[in-house]
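ugh finaly. both done.
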Amino acid sequence: MAVEINRILNEARAIGCSDLHFTYGIHPIVRLNGALRKMTRYGEMDEEQILDICNQMTNENQMASIRAHKDTDFSFQTTAGYRHRVNVYFQRGKTAIAIRLLRNDIPTLDDLHLPPVLADFAMRPRGLVLVTGPTGSGKSTTLAGMIDYINVHRSAHVITIEDPIEYVHTHKLCMVNQREVGDDVPDFASALRAALREDPDVILVGEMRDFETITAAVTAAETGHLVLSTLHTTSAADTINRIIDVYPEHQQGQIRTQLANNLVGVISQTLLPRMDGKGREACMEILAVTDACSAMIRDDKVHLLLSAIQSGKQYGMMCLDQELARYVKRGIVSEKDALEKAQSKSEFYRFLNGTAATT
């Protein structure tokens, strides 16, 4: 049975799925509220069917890449006008497809129930803002909300560098130029260097993947631009250490100083299924870099940042374990799901059962 990609994507979207997967030998799989489910009305997939689905979504160059057994990323728009992020990869010699279903509308920070400090970060004239978390934790959506906030509240030139473009921004108060790796630019690092010659005020870098991209992003923040990007780390301290560890030992003092001077904030987020079944809720650790936090970064005392976060509520900071406990107390998420995401089980239970305020 041939699978018509537009039809199955519309079905997945109608029931609120976030992802759709095709893998050899099993039914199509969707992710709904974080859990995987089989689409049993479709049969088990064979290689011919999966390649036919690839063919429905790709252009000639993309299909040639797939036939050459190269992992291939691209965006796909259905006939209904909905956009998707697609990765074609290979396992046990067979083709597999992972498709992320994207929202067509740009979610606002209010729509996403995100804290006001994110709007403060978005309006900074310069510096580096990082949104971190595991794959599928909503980083791109949070960044889209922040870019939209800038677009509505500030006159600026925004350049985004993405792989692929996920949310399409219209020009509001800002001029927004979106560049896709592979089509418009060869890679993140060279696109970032080029962006500095394109008179930007704000630069969004889809991901800081390597030394060259990290260096270019820090330089862009240092030279008077607001730079927003992502990393696959799970806390503010991990994020800063990851960046520092990318550098050779003799340059680590320099990058500490650069981060101390230019880092605006780190937003580490995770998604948890809501107890009412209405999708998933983002839970965050937020570091707003104060003078005291800058000194900790500069002096190689990153391990002290967690206590600064716990005592920094007046600056908009949030501690993940404290937020998880608050969500459990309010009946938004289950204790079991929250515990799985907690950074420290003992801290989580201290906030849940102890005297620490969580409301």
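ok and the 2nd:
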Amino acid sequence: MDLLKQISIETACARLVSQYCFAIDGGDFEQWIALFTPDCKWVRQGQPAVLGHEGLKAFLASRSKTAATRHVSTNVLVDVIDDSHATGRSYTLLYAATATSAPEVPVLRPPQRLIECRDEYRLFDGAWRIAVRTNRPCMVAAG
């Protein structure tokens, strides 16, 4: 594989990590689901695996409607396997605040947790998508 193609794949997959954060935090749930392959698997430590787009929709329906979140991802590292497969690692700090009806900005609390994310990416219908995401907490907030 030539270097330009490798860099293009790395960039597309790293972009998925940022899109994931902006879509889930911004409430653009259709866009968030579209970042995953239809047969995706999302594994969160201590939770049953979420499978496929229907599983993602069920997860969204179970989320608190009063929490405002911000996912801040960093240290994104993508390794290209071949023309249609790649893997990635990143860290995500999760911030949350209780949403209010008041127009002011919610008060920021310390991050709730630091999560290590391991991803498997796959080219699907001409676009890179998350096929498997595995989250493992590295650190959690005290109290």
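summary for the 2nd one i guess: The radius of gyration is 16 Å.
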